[in-house]
Design goal:
It is elongated, with a radius of gyration of 34 Å. It is of the alpha/beta class and 543 residues long. The strands form 2 sheets. It has a 9-stranded mixed beta sheet, with helices on both faces. Strands 2-1-3-4-5 form a 5-stranded mixed beta sheet, sandwiched between helices. It has 2 domains: 169 residues, 3-Layer(aba) Sandwich (Rossmann fold); 321 residues, no CATH class. It contains 15 helices and 14 strands.
Amino acid sequence: MYNKLNQLRKLRNVFLLMWFIPLAFWGNGCAQVQEIIPAKPQPVQPTQTQSNVAEEAERFLAINNLGSSTISSLEFQQFLNKIPQEYAGNRLFLVRVDELPLGNPYSGLDQWDLALENGIIKGLLTTNYKIAEKLDFVAPRDPGEFIGTSPDEGFYMHGIDLEDHNIIKQDYKAPLLLEYQVIEFSEQDNSVIVYFRMVDLDSLLILSSTVVKVGDFVDRLSEVDIKEYDRTYTAIVNSDLLESDLLSSLHRVAILDMDILNISGGYKTAPSKKLLAIENGLISGIINHVAYNEKNPFLKEKSTGFKLKFPAVYKNIVFNTNPILYEEWSEFTEATGCTELILYRYLKDEGLYLRFVDAAKNGEIFFSNVIPFNDTEDIGVFKNHNSVAEKFGSTFSFDLLSGKKLMILDGDKHPVESENYAAIRNRFGKMHFAIEEGFITSMLRQSEAYNYTLHEKLKTLYLKRPWMYNKKVFNLNPLYLENWKQLQSFGVEMLLVYNNLIPYENLTPGINDYTTVAISYRLIDLSSGDVIFSDQFSNLGGE
C-alpha cells in the first residue's frame, strides 16, 4: 500500500512541476527575453557630409539635363527629320549598345550613366514618339554568334539578340529600335558625345544615324574615335560622287569593311571602337547626303549571313576576289536579305575607297572611286588609282566591250614566277588594290555609254600551280581552267588580264618608285579564246 501511495505522490509532483516550470518561466520571461535579444543597432554614421550629398544629387540632375540636351540638340532634330513620316508617333525601344557589336559586354556603368539615360528618355518624351519602359526580357546578342566563329563573320554585326526582336515588337509594341553608343562621357565636365541610330525592326533598315556632342567642355572629349567619325562623315556627306541617281537605285544595302580580307582572309586592323566610328561615320554621311532620299531608306543592319571566306583559300585563288564566302550571289541575298553591297577600304592617311556591288545582278559593279579626307596626306595610293583610271581610259578601245559582261584579273608575272607570286601574295597591300580598282573606276565611267557591265569576282577561281607550267609552251594564261566555257559559267564573256610591273610589296611610301605606274594588259573574248586587244601604259619619265 505504501509503495502505491508513494508512486502516486511522485506522479503528482511530476504533474505539478510540469505546470510550475512554464508559469515560472512566463513570469520572468520578459526579463530573460530582453537578455537574449541583441542590442538595437546603432545608426551608421554617414560617410558624406550633408553638402556632399547635395552636391552629388545636383550633379545627377545636371547629367540628367545633359542627356535631355542631346535630344534637343540641332543634330538630333535633324536626325528625327531623316526618319520617314510613316514612323511618326510610333513606340520605340531605347537600348545602349556601346561595344556590344564588338562582342564586349557592358562595363563600368554607374549612377551617372543612369542619369544620362534618364535624361535621354526625358528628352525623347518631348518628341512625337512613345518610349517603352524596359523590363528584363531583352538581352545583348551572344558574342558566340558573331565573334570567333568559323567561318568568320564580317565587321560589324548587329549587337542585340535577334530572337528578342520579336519581344520588342510584340510584347513592347515597339517597331523601332533606338540604339545609342556613348563615345566619350565626363560627369565631371558635364559633357558627352553620343552616337544614335534608329532601326526599323521589321526590315532592319537604318532610318537615321548621327553623332551628338553636348556640354560646355565637349572639346576636351574629342579623342581618336570621334575624330575618325568626323573625318569619314565629312568626306562622305560632302562628296559630289554620290549622285541622286546612284543612291536612288539602291534597295537593301549592307556595308562591309574590306580591309585586306581578300589578301589574307583576316582584318589587318582588328575590330575596335575606332572602326565602329569609321563605319558609323560612313553610314551617317550617306544618310545625311543631299542626294539621299529619306523616303527610300536602303541601308541595313548586318545581322546574319555575312560569312567570310576561309583564310587558307587565298593562297591559290586570283587576287582581289570578294571576301564573302558564297559561290553564287543568290546565296548571299538569301542569307542576308541584302540586294546590294557597299565595300569600303579605310586609308587613314588619304580617305576611303568605295565599291558598290549589285548582288541581285550577279555581282555587277556599278560604282567605284576614292573619296579623300579634307585633311588628307597624299602618300600616293589615291594618286596611283587616279593615274591608272585616266591612262587606261585614254588607251583602251571601249567599243570592244559593247554589250558584254567583263571580269578583271591580275596576271602579275605568274607564268614565270608562280612560286614567287604565291610567296609574296600575303605581302600585297593597299597599292596593289589601288591598281586594280583604278581599272574598275575607269571602266565604270564608260559602261553606260558602251552598254557593258563589270562583275565582281565571287566564285573561287584558282590559279595554276607552279608544276602545271612544266613541259608546256611558254606564257600560259595563269587561270586553272580546262576551257573558257568554265569561266563563262561565272556569268562573264570577256576577261581583261593586266600585269603590274612595279613590286609595291618591296617599296614604302615616300620614295619615288612608290608612286610609279607601269601596266601591260590584254583583252580576251571568252567565246573564242582570242586576244582581241593588247596595250600598255605608265607614268615613267613623267608621262
